[in-house]
Amino acid sequence: MHPPVDLAEDLERFNARLATYLKPEEITRVGSAYVFADAAHRGQMRLSGAPYISHPLAVAETLAGWHLDAHALMAALLHDVMEDTSITKDQIAERFGKVAAELVDGVSKLDRIEHQSFEEAQAENFRKMLLAMARDVRVILIKLADRLHNMRTLDVMRPEKRRRIARETLDIYAPIANRLGLNALYRELQEMAFRHAHPLRYRVLSKAVKGARGNRREVVSKILEAIRKTLPEAGIDAEVMGREKHLYGIYRKMRDKHLSFSQVLDIYGFRIIVKDRPTCYLALGALHALYQPVPGKFKDYIAIPKANGYQSLHTTLIGPFGTPVEIQIRDPHMHHVAESGVASHWLYKDESALDQLQQKTHKWLQSLVELQSTTGDSSEFLEHVKVDLFPSEVYVFSPKGKIFALPRGSTPVDMAYAVHTDIGDRCVACRVNFETMPLRTELRNGDRVEIITAPNAAPNPAWLGYVKSARARSKIRHFLNTQQHEESAALGERLLSHALRDLGLALAKLPAQAWDRFKRASGARSQRAVLADIGLGKRLPAIVARRLAEGAEDAVAGIATENRPHQAILIHGAEGVAVKLGNCCRPIPGDPIVGLIRKGQGLVVHTHDCTAITKLRSERGNWVDVEWESGITGMFEASIRVVAKNVRGVLARLASGIAEADSNIVNISMDEDHGEATTLFFTLQVTDRSHLARILRTLRRVPEVVRITRYVDPKQH
């Protein structure tokens, strides 16, 4: 149970804190916001039985501890009035100013909006909150203080609701606190969320840690004594303290690294605070002389800060009894930033060294706005943001020496998009440490990465399978969606022209009234959207043509018509995502072909005798007459099956024959050995049907070939 709330005592403590840094007139304005919120929430109680006003007061008190300004404190006191009472944003703006009203609106949940599910509603709320935060970081500071107090009073909730809120805190709010450098808040949110999400594990670990403290005391004292003796001998004045391991940190390390409890607890942590940056390195040298450092376990976050502005030297030493000792070394300024992060901006306004932290935070917040502009729905947006909220990073260099911080596991494609969207979109190859490497190569700390571009290159959908950064994933998806829309609209225009021609009409000569009438009746946004829907198979061209013809007749009598003979859609084989060649039959120029409009796929081209299309004969309205365009010069894939005698060197002779016929091998596979003969399957690049016939004739001259045919893979049907 929670102790009873003493509002008078809480209010007195809050006012005393305000008096340490706000002007008297600002304190008066904050006081009026408290009176207003108290009146608005009068009669409302929290589940704990406390008056509701105790919650906004607790939120404001947390912000006062970060020395936030009067606008943020007023917004904290008023943050629930729009949700829980009839008071509007305009009323708040009129009484307390536009800034406070915008902050309250940014923190408030979305309401009166229909969502398909709770998850969708939550995703939309996060989207709104994060975008408001991009405009003013105080929004998220208020929201984090709000979540902190809710977590501190979560015991009164039902168990399933406690678990849901705890999971949400671990997934979103704690990582945001970490991303903003609010380390103390981050740790407290994690600990409380762990306690509610996994109560049994929390109790077991808590009991085990308490039991182990006595055994550890001797080792900790020995290490502390050695450090406190060594540093003054080297002329270094330092504050040395042991770091208590957090339960969630222990749990996560046990789970992720498959370690036992004793293995995790046998690592001792210490923090050393010295007067300035140069002394950090002097202290490091003294400690490395005291205990043997562990190779590969030194990290210099002073020279290269983390994305959230965190700076310290990290090193791991082998202490007494062979126990690992983890040490962090920092100066007072770094310590302030490590504990308060972006809130240090209000605590230490005069320190110019915070500029870098502010710039990094601003850059990340602006990236949220950019993600919003290229992301479709709220769930996808939240998925992208989550990627950026777990900043296990790798640091790589451009050829000019610029450092880029990327999520761990990133590839050169992530690096290309981190440089610029155009570089990412035109990326074709890369050099890592002066060696040409595949684009899917996982980058490591310190890699020098050079991106090679080509003017006509475009993102590959396969990149989505291995990129790690939210920016790269979002930009690739945006490009592919835009490309599909454009190509689908172009295909839809060809299909609709074809259907209108059958009715004796010309697309270019349709009156605007016919299109207006069709858009009103169908609910279409624009003419371009209708054409894209036709290209994607969402609308049938024949039906759209008939409706447009009806609208044209009503609009204008005797419009110009075309009496040209019936013509087929011409296929040139490189249309892109809107026109696809069937994987089942792999049509090539010279093959008789038919076209089928499939919903969401666009126009799919098959050979006329493809066995896959016999199942689709009922879809009569979706069939389209298609023909190969004359003079096609591209390369197409065709598959052949070769039954050959199982003798040494036969594969080499077949490959030589294929090369002799001016073809490349894309893929080779074979059936299991069946005695004297082996069946081989080749996927080849050919220009047309005649080229394929020439290849087959060449291979038939190989003495070991028993039988050879063009092959259709039944698995692709």
TrEMBL record:
<comment type="function">
    <text>In eubacteria ppGpp (guanosine 3'-diphosphate 5'-diphosphate) is a mediator of the stringent response that coordinates a variety of cellular activities in response to changes in nutritional abundance.</text>
</comment>
<dbReference type="InterPro" id="IPR033655">
    <property type="entry name" value="TGS_RelA/SpoT"/>
</dbReference>
<feature type="domain" description="TGS">
    <location>
        <begin position="390"/>
        <end position="453"/>
    </location>
</feature>
<dbReference type="GO" id="GO:0015969">
    <property type="term" value="P:guanosine tetraphosphate metabolic process"/>
</dbReference>
<dbReference type="GO" id="GO:0008728">
    <property type="term" value="F:GTP diphosphokinase activity"/>
</dbReference>
<dbReference type="InterPro" id="IPR045865">
    <property type="entry name" value="ACT-like_dom_sf"/>
</dbReference>
<dbReference type="GO" id="GO:0005886">
    <property type="term" value="C:plasma membrane"/>
</dbReference>
<dbReference type="InterPro" id="IPR007685">
    <property type="entry name" value="RelA_SpoT"/>
</dbReference>
<dbReference type="InterPro" id="IPR004811">
    <property type="entry name" value="RelA/Spo_fam"/>
</dbReference>
<feature type="domain" description="HD">
    <location>
        <begin position="52"/>
        <end position="151"/>
    </location>
</feature>
<feature type="domain" description="ACT">
    <location>
        <begin position="639"/>
        <end position="714"/>
    </location>
</feature>
<dbReference type="Pfam" id="PF13328">
    <property type="entry name" value="HD_4"/>
</dbReference>
<dbReference type="Pfam" id="PF13291">
    <property type="entry name" value="ACT_4"/>
</dbReference>
<dbReference type="GO" id="GO:0042594">
    <property type="term" value="P:response to starvation"/>
</dbReference>
<dbReference type="Pfam" id="PF04607">
    <property type="entry name" value="RelA_SpoT"/>
</dbReference>
<dbReference type="InterPro" id="IPR006674">
    <property type="entry name" value="HD_domain"/>
</dbReference>
<dbReference type="InterPro" id="IPR004095">
    <property type="entry name" value="TGS"/>
</dbReference>
<dbReference type="Pfam" id="PF02824">
    <property type="entry name" value="TGS"/>
</dbReference>
<comment type="similarity">
    <text>Belongs to the relA/spoT family.</text>
</comment>
<dbReference type="InterPro" id="IPR002912">
    <property type="entry name" value="ACT_dom"/>
</dbReference>
<dbReference type="GO" id="GO:0008893">
    <property type="term" value="F:guanosine-3',5'-bis(diphosphate) 3'-diphosphatase activity"/>
</dbReference>
<dbReference type="GO" id="GO:0015949">
    <property type="term" value="P:nucleobase-containing small molecule interconversion"/>
</dbReference>
<dbReference type="InterPro" id="IPR043519">
    <property type="entry name" value="NT_sf"/>
</dbReference>
<dbReference type="InterPro" id="IPR012675">
    <property type="entry name" value="Beta-grasp_dom_sf"/>
</dbReference>
<dbReference type="InterPro" id="IPR012676">
    <property type="entry name" value="TGS-like"/>
</dbReference>
<dbReference type="InterPro" id="IPR003607">
    <property type="entry name" value="HD/PDEase_dom"/>
</dbReference>
<protein>
    <submittedName>
        <fullName>Guanosine-3',5'-bis(Diphosphate) 3'-pyrophosphohydrol</fullName>
    </submittedName>
</protein>
